[in-house]
């Protein structure tokens, strides 16, 4: 087998894997971002249930966060993929379909990341809400401000301001979880590195490249969240 230099392997020439690795890195960001958004929507609802719900609703919300934070993320991915495929197969059998029907791997991965991320984002939102000054909320109520207007102008901006650091940490978790989706066949960064390593028999070269790409994504993400935090705290005097 012809041996190529490291830069030839990760480059964009005829023997390079650079374009495939960058496409896989984009897939990693895409599936993590979609899962993160799903988690934000579910997490906001779970947080609301913990704060304002009655006892059964709060019990459901607490159970959700306890279970999803307590079981391995890989198990959640398997449950979504094989459980969803089994349900899809049962429906398909009613129309004459036979055999295994697999769910789209991107959708499965995004949903799995989303439900796990929601458990963490719910706690972030709840903690941020508890940091909002109660006096501002009471003042808005005393002025007869409608609940939706109070939420839009007072609660939501301050909750987001306090939540940004925690949400940044949850985003980093979502990026790491995206690597687990390779087990169901999605060609993201880790899976593409495995394919390239197997084809060239140069595993170290591709795995160290994947590590560097993950670090680049993490660094860019950290900068974005830090700037968002600084913008959210603009005009706020710090102790």
From TrEMBL:
<feature type="transmembrane region" description="Helical">
    <location>
        <begin position="75"/>
        <end position="95"/>
    </location>
</feature>
<keyword id="KW-0997">Cell inner membrane</keyword>
<protein>
    <submittedName>
        <fullName>Amino acid ABC transporter membrane protein 1 (PAAT family)</fullName>
    </submittedName>
</protein>
<keyword id="KW-0472">Membrane</keyword>
<dbReference type="GO" id="GO:0022857">
    <property type="term" value="F:transmembrane transporter activity"/>
</dbReference>
<feature type="transmembrane region" description="Helical">
    <location>
        <begin position="101"/>
        <end position="120"/>
    </location>
</feature>
<keyword id="KW-0812">Transmembrane</keyword>
<dbReference type="InterPro" id="IPR035906">
    <property type="entry name" value="MetI-like_sf"/>
</dbReference>
<keyword id="KW-1003">Cell membrane</keyword>
<dbReference type="InterPro" id="IPR051613">
    <property type="entry name" value="ABC_transp_permease_HisMQ"/>
</dbReference>
<dbReference type="GO" id="GO:0043190">
    <property type="term" value="C:ATP-binding cassette (ABC) transporter complex"/>
</dbReference>
<feature type="transmembrane region" description="Helical">
    <location>
        <begin position="20"/>
        <end position="48"/>
    </location>
</feature>
<keyword id="KW-0813">Transport</keyword>
<feature type="domain" description="ABC transmembrane type-1">
    <location>
        <begin position="25"/>
        <end position="225"/>
    </location>
</feature>
<dbReference type="InterPro" id="IPR010065">
    <property type="entry name" value="AA_ABC_transptr_permease_3TM"/>
</dbReference>
<keyword id="KW-1133">Transmembrane helix</keyword>
<comment type="similarity">
    <text>Belongs to the binding-protein-dependent transport system permease family. HisMQ subfamily.</text>
</comment>
<feature type="transmembrane region" description="Helical">
    <location>
        <begin position="159"/>
        <end position="186"/>
    </location>
</feature>
<dbReference type="InterPro" id="IPR000515">
    <property type="entry name" value="MetI-like"/>
</dbReference>
<dbReference type="Pfam" id="PF00528">
    <property type="entry name" value="BPD_transp_1"/>
</dbReference>
<feature type="transmembrane region" description="Helical">
    <location>
        <begin position="206"/>
        <end position="225"/>
    </location>
</feature>
């Amino acid at each position: 087998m012809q041996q190529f230099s490291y830069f030839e392997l990760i480059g964009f020439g005829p023997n390079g894997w650079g374009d495939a690795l960058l496409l896989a890195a984009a897939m990693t960001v895409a599936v993590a971002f979609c899962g993160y958004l799903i988690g934000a929507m579910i997490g906001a609802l779970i947080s609301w249930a913990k704060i304002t719900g009655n006892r059964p609703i709060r019990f459901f919300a607490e159970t959700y966060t306890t279970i999803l934070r307590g079981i391995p993320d890989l198990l959640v991915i398997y449950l979504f993929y094989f459980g969803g495929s089994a349900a899809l197969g049962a429906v398909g059998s009613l129309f004459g379909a036979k055999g295994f029907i697999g769910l789209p791997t991107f959708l499965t991965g995004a949903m799995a990341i989303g439900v796990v991320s929601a458990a963490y984002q719910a706690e972030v939102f709840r903690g941020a809400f508890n940091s909002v000054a109660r006096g501002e909320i009471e003042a808005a109520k005393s002025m007869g401000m409608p609940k939706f207007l109070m939420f839009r102008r007072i609660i939501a901006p301050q909750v987001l301001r306090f939540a940004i650091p925690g949400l940044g940490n949850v985003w980093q978790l979502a990026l790491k979880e995206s690597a687990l989706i390779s087990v169901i066949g999605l060609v993201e960064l880790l899976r593409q590195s495995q394919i390239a390593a197997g084809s060239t028999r140069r595993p170290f070269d591709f795995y160290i490249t994947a590590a560097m790409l993950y670090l680049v994504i993490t660094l860019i993400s950290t900068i974005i969240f830090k700037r968002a935090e600084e913008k959210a705290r603009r005009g706020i005097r710090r102790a």
